[in-house]
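# nightly structure sweep
# worker-07 picked up a monomer target from the shared queue
# config: single-sequence mode, recycle default, output format = structure tokens
# input follows
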Amino acid sequence: MPEETQTKSPASTDAPAAAPAASGSTSSTPAPAPVRTRSSGGRGKFFRRKKVCKFCTEKIDAIPYRDVRLLQGFVAERGKIVPRRLTGVCTTHQRRLTRAIKQARNIALLPFATRH
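# output follows
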């Protein structure tokens, strides 16, 4: 019995491999995606520092909507507001920051979107 299972398992793996070759059109079947493995060490190339709210550390309570340089750091190239998981800003300051960015957009200090 164990010999039969050993002989059937390679045959079952060979059958699907032979089927695409027999059809003749290898371009229509997608190639399997390569498996990526981690290198030794597991940590990677960069060390990710814990993100701390910039406004909490500098003790800034009110975020001025007129300070365009400060607000541009939290707006992506395309004009989108960068989420707090990327900037490290706390929730209360993210809300205030969003409100300040929207005010600056409405009075044309910041663009809504970039030109193509």
